[in-house]
Design a protein that fits this description.
64% helix, 2% strand, 2 strands
Length: 162
């Protein structure tokens, strides 16, 4: 039976994966958080090398700078590399990488709470920590633990193909 004339036909480009992002709120939230927690750490990690957004070494608590065997800027290079890897990991496997990001944010929060004047940034990062944990929980439902040997799972369609 043909669809009534007043019902628009769906294009195949959105079916079934991307349509699901719009139709299912939890799945849409999962993808929004997955993209955000992949892109933003990569972006911030790259900025640790160029200091375009801010002077990143100034965010390190003095006691951390005192214990480091190298300069604060070198520490920011290490931080930047870790953030880039974390962002890539979230893009590949958010089910596990979101917990890594949450732990990383916990370390940043500890640093900021031990450095007077950055409590507002620590509070913001606590919000980001909650978002990372929300991504981890959503990923438990929407990101398969692992595909069977020889099969790949398309994350948009949840179909396996050999």
């Amino acid at each position: 039976m043909a669809a009534p004339a007043h019902v628009p036909t769906r294009t195949r480009s959105f079916e079934p994966g991307w349509r699901r992002v719009w139709d299912e709120p939890a799945y849409g939230a999962y993808w929004l958080l997955r993209v955000g927690y992949a892109v933003l750490p990569i972006w911030m990690g790259i900025d640790k090398f160029v200091n375009a957004l801010t002077d990143w070494p100034s965010y390190l608590a003095p006691w951390i700078v005192d214990v480091l065997p190298f300069s604060a800027q070198t520490a920011m290079y290490v931080v930047g590399a870790i953030e880039i890897v974390a962002g890539i990991a979230v893009a590949i496997k958010p089910r596990y990488a979101a917990y890594v990001v949450a732990l990383w944010l916990t370390g940043i929060i500890v640093n900021l709470l031990t450095y007077s004047g950055f409590y507002d940034v620590a509070l913001r990062d606590f919000g980001l920590l909650l978002g990372a944990l929300a991504l981890a929980r959503l990923a438990a439902a929407h990101d398969p633990a692992r595909a069977r040997a020889g099969f790949r799972t398309n994350p948009l369609t949840r179909r396996t193909r050999g």
